[in-house]
Specification:
Order of helices and strands of chain B: HEEHHHHHHHHHHHH
Oligomer: heterodimer
Shape of chain A: flat
Number of domains of chain B: 1
Distance between the termini of chain B: 19 Å
Radius of gyration of chain A: 25 Å
Structural class of chain B: mainly alpha
């Protein structure tokens, strides 16, 4: 091999890295600019010459976004309230979906009872009814129940889950009959079997689903947009777009950017820190 | 399909399925039925009386040139988002799957955007591409491009496509990577021994074996573009300028929530329901087939 060939080989080896680094930068750049924006003052941003390096207003911006609720031009819900709402929503949806799905999957997989398959299909068919296609009537049901502007209205209608039920059922069908028989011989009832055997065996599935569902809940948009009218109930994702309004140059972009960073921190942290479970949850629950 | 050994209990199974079934009945089946009923009712101008009109609302919706425009925009938008995000994801996945240094780091740095809400992705893009304050928006204007996605139809559509695709790449990347890792190394080595270069190996071995993943992602991405991009559009353009970025789902929201046209909005909802049912049916037929051959 000549020296020239070797050099050429080196260059070819670098191409994948170059493309991947470019990809990483395309994803990181908007976040970088958001971080930068959150460290300058509103006037600098409004003039349109935001530097590419951090400024000195960061602490002030984050503190103001977190607790004040009033910039120079926008009035908004303080981030601590919106974060709390988003957290309640994400946790209730994640825990609720897992709880009711694992129970119904347990019933469908481990019992023989009338209407078993009808119940199964009733749950299954919700796959085909995303909230977007039944917006108005679902909103009406929630309004009739007096659940507008409540955590219950925000979360309960999203708690039914066909995918989680299917996933648990699939997993339960792989549990050997001997295990069930052994439990019966030991005199364990169904609920005892559920708590002492099934639940511990389902640990990884639960963790994986939790990561996916937490992000799903945190990122909800259309539903909270309809269900929350009071500022105290606003979730953070909705809050940001309300702050932006029509996107004028002269607005409190520094506060909006600080709020954006705080809004994306929890779900990004969950994905990065629980990456293994997250990938498993995603691949399992969707396939 | 059920297990051979089961528990015997008269009422416990009903108690166990009750919460899930109650929620699906109250918040899924009942509203869906309402949507179908409402789609066949016509309200008078004062909203006082409703008459049953069979499929008149559907006829009105489907013969409305505005609706057909919205449909056309939705198709263009969905195809663009799907193709762009899948091609980029496949490229990154193939490269990150190769035996290169730092692939774990690349992987982490490419999957995190999954965690962003579509609306938040839109906010990031606004801050960069705003014609007055955005770094790139101003750069485009300085280059003499007259960049303002708030006024220009095409630019608005480009913005929502790019923001929506940008957010979706990581999802597709995860699935392509999982699909690639499932391809037996021996097959690729055999092809290499036969003298096939990397590009040829990709098109004759990798890509065909990846087709279940590709097909699955195709359906998921269409669903994403149809429904979940509502947040992107609502945050970025509100369907505008004019109706340039109004997709079907955005229009259901506008007609039902903002314009209060219940019959028309419900008819549109029912049409979208049919789209979802068709896509889900395709998905499941395909999964069934895959199970057979696995």
């Amino acid at each position: 091999m000549t020296a020239q060939n070797k050099l050429w080989g080196r260059i070819v080896d670098l191409v994948p890295h170059a493309v991947l680094i470019l990809g990483v930068l395309i994803f990181a750049f908007p976040i970088y600019m958001t971080l930068i924006g959150s460290t300058w003052d509103a006037a600098t941003i409004a003039r349109g010459n935001l530097p590419l390096i951090p400024g000195g207003e960061g602490l002030h911006n984050y503190a103001a976004a977190w607790s004040e609720g009033r910039g120079e031009r926008v009035v908004y819900t303080p981030v601590r309230i919106m974060m709390w709402n988003s957290l309640v929503m994400a946790l209730t949806i994640a825990v609720g979906k897992i709880a009711i799905s694992i129970l119904s999957a347990f019933a469908i997989a481990f019992f023989r009872f009338h209407f078993r398959m009808i119940f199964f299909w009733m749950i299954f068919i919700t796959l085909m009814l995303p909230v977007e296609v039944r917006i108005i009537p679902t909103y009406k049901v929630v309004a009739d129940l007096g659940l507008i502007d409540t955590y219950a209205g925000l979360t309960i209608p999203l708690i039914a889950s066909a995918t989680a039920t299917l996933l648990f059922r699939q997993f339960f069908l792989t549990i050997p009959d001997e295990l069930v028989e052994a439990a019966k011989i030991d005199g364990a009832g169904p609920m005892r079997f559920f708590f002492d055997v099934l639940l511990p065996l389902s640990r990884t599935n639960i963790a994986a689903l939790f990561v996916i569902l937490f992000i799903y809940g945190w990122n909800q948009y259309l539903w909270p947009l309809l269900i929350t009218t009071s500022r105290e109930m606003q979730t953070i994702v909705i809050g940001i777009t309300k702050m932006i309004g029509t996107g004028e140059a002269a607005t409190d972009w520094n506060l909006i950017m600080a709020t954006t960073v705080l809004a994306l921190l929890p779900p990004v942290a969950v994905v990065v820190l629980m990456q293994r479970w997250f990938v498993k949850g995603l691949v399992d629950s969707e396939k | 399909m059920q297990r051979r050994v089961v528990f015997e209990n008269k009422w416990l199974p009903y108690l166990l399925v009750a919460p899930q079934v109650a929620i699906t009945l109250i918040f899924f089946h009942w509203p869906a039925a309402q949507a179908i009923e409402q789609s066949m009712l016509l309200q008078d101008a004062f909203g006082l009386r409703q008459t049953f009109v069979w499929f008149e609302n559907f006829e009105i919706v489907l013969s409305d040139p505005n609706y057909l425009d919205t449909l056309r925009i939705t198709v263009v938008f969905s195809v663009a988002v799907t193709v762009l995000s899948m091609v980029l994801a496949l490229l990154f996945a193939v490269l990150a799957n190769a035996q290169i240094a730092g692939r774990g780091v690349y992987k982490t740095l490419l999957i995190w955007p999954y965690a962003l809400a579509p609306a938040v992705a839109a906010v990031l893009w606004i801050f960069i591409f705003n014609p007055e304050i955005g770094v790139l928006g101003r750069a485009l204007n300085n280059m003499g491009l007259r960049w303002d996605y708030r006024l220009n139809d095409t630019q608005a559509l480009v913005m929502v496509v790019l923001a929506s695709a940008w957010k979706q790449v990581s999802y597709n990347f995860i699935f392509f990577l999982a699909g690639l890792q499932a391809i037996p190394r021996s097959l690729l080595e055999a092809a290499a021994i036969d003298g096939a270069g990397p590009v040829r190996r990709f098109w004759t071995v990798t890509f065909p074996l990846l087709s279940p993943t590709t097909f699955f992602l195709l359906v998921v991405n269409i669903v994403y573009a149809f429904f979940e991009t509502f947040g992107v559009i609502h945050a970025l353009t509100k369907g505008g300028p004019g109706k340039a970025t109004e997709t079907l789902i955005y229009r259901v929201y506008l007609d039902g929530v903002i314009n209060n046209d219940l019959g028309g909005s419900s008819a549109q909802s029912v049409l979208l329901m049919l789209v979802v049912i068709a896509l889900t049916a395709i998905q499941f037929r395909f999964i069934e087939r895959k199970v057979h051959y696995a």
